[in-house]
Specification:
By secondary structure, this protein is an alpha/beta fold. It is 41% helix and 19% strand.
C-alpha cells in the first residue's frame, strides 16, 4: 500500500495533462500511486493517458461526464483505505520535485495537522506568486472569507466522513476545506512547491458569476459555524469587497469590531491579521499613493502586510 495517493480529475485536459503527470513521476518522494479519473473527455485526453499507462504508479479510470465535484468524490472513494495520505492535483498543474517529500515529512511530524498546502506560482495567462497564511489559527479565520489553501497544493490525511457537496460546481473546494478545518488543523508550508496554470478554458475562469454565488453561500455558513454569526447581505458584501463607499465612514471598521466580539480573546490577534490583510490587498492602490510617506522600506505587498498586521504567537 502506498503512503500517498495522488488523485487527479481530468476533463478535456489534453494540452496539459502530460506535463502534469510528468511532474508527479519526477517526485523525490517515491512511495505513491497516481489515480486519474477521466471525466468523459471529448478531446484526446484518454489517448494521452493510454500512452502513459505503462507506468506502474499510474492507474486510469474513465466514465461518462458528471463534473469535477462528482469526480473528486469518486476519487475519494477509490482511494479510501488505500493510503495514509491523499494529494490533490489538477490535470493542468505542475508539482515541484520536492513537493510531496516536504509535505509528507511535515505531516508525519505534526499529527494534529489534518492537511497542508503550499505557496504557489501562477503561470500561463497570468503570472504571480501566491502566499497563504501559514499557521492553523490564521487559516481558521481565513476560512471565513475563502479557501485558506490553494486546493491543487493540498495534501491531507484520510478523512472518511467528509466528501464534496455535489450541489456546488465551482466552489466545492472552499466548502470541503471549511468542513475539514473543523476536524483538524490546516496549514500552509511557506515554500513555492506548486505551479498553478491559468488558461482561458479553465472552469474557475469561465464561470465567475456562478463561483461567486456559491462562494457567498459557503461564506455565510462559515461565519455561522465558526463564529455563530448570521451575516446580512450588506455586511457580507462589505467583507467580500472592502473597497469603495462601503468601506468609508467607518462602516467596515465598526463591522469588524462587532465581529471581534465573537472571537475568543486569545485568538483576536489572528483574526485581526486576516482582516487587515484583506483590507490591505483590496486597497493597495490607495496605499501606493502614500507608501513613501510612511517612511518604511517596503519591497512588495507582503512587506506591507507585515508592517500593518499584528504579530501573533504561532
Amino acid at each position: 500500500m502506498p503512503v500517498v495517493s495522488i488523485v487527479m480529475p481530468a476533463y478535456n485536459a489534453a494540452p496539459f495533462i502530460g506535463k502534469a503527470i510528468e511532474s508527479l513521476l519526477a517526485q523525490q518522494f517515491k512511495d505513491y500511486a497516481i489515480i486519474v479519473l477521466d471525466d468523459g473527455s471529448t478531446d484526446n485526453t484518454r489517448e494521452i493517458l493510454d500512452r502513459l499507462s505503462s507506468h506502474k504508479k499510474l492507474t486510469i479510470h474513465s466514465r461518462e461526464n458528471r463534473g469535477t465535484t462528482h469526480s473528486r468524490n469518486d476519487l475519494l472513494r477509490i482511494v479510501r483505505g488505500q493510503s495514509e495520505y491523499i494529494a490533490w492535483c489538477d490535470a493542468d498543474d505542475v508539482y515541484h520535485p520536492e513537493k510531496l517529500k516536504t509535505q509528507i515529512e511535515f505531516l508525519g511530524a505534526n499529527r494534529s495537522v489534518i492537511g497542508c498546502g503550499t505557496w504557489y506560482r501562477c503561470f500561463g495567462r497570468r503570472r504571480k506568486s501566491v502566499r497563504k497564511f501559514i499557521g492553523p489559527i490564521y487559516n481558521k479565520y481565513a476560512c471565513l472569507f475563502g479557501a485558506p489553501v490553494g486546493f491543487p497544493t493540498f495534501v491531507q490525511r484520510q478523512a472518511p466522513g467528509i466528501e464534496f457537496d455535489t450541489t456546488f460546481s465551482s466552489a466545492e473546494d472552499y466548502d470541503y476545506l471549511l468542513r475539514l478545518i473543523q476536524q483538524g488543523e490546516v496549514v500552509n508550508i511557506n515554500r513555492y512547491l506548486t505551479n498553478y496554470r491559468v488558461h482561458d478554458s479553465q472552469q474557475s475562469s469561465a464561470n465567475t458569476h456562478r463561483q461567486l454565488a456559491e462562494h457567498r453561500q459557503i461564506m455565510r455558513r462559515a461565519f455561522a459555524e465558526v463564529l455563530g454569526l448570521s451575516l446580512s447581505d450588506e455586511n457580507q458584501e462589505r467583507l467580500l469587497f472592502p473597497v469603495g463607499p462601503a468601506s468609508n465612514g467607518g462602516i467596515l471598521g465598526k463591522l469588524i469590531v462587532d465581529i471581534e466580539k465573537h472571537v475568543p480573546t486569545n485568538e483576536l490577534c489572528y483574526f485581526r491579521a486576516v482582516a487587515n490583510y484583506r483590507m490591505l490587498v483590496f486597497n493597495k492602490w490607495k496605499l501606493a499613493i502614500f507608501r513613501n510617506a510612511l517612511g518604511l522600506d517596503l519591497r512588495d505587498w507582503s512587506d506591507i502586510v507585515k508592517a500593518f498586521t499584528p504579530i501573533c504567537q504561532s
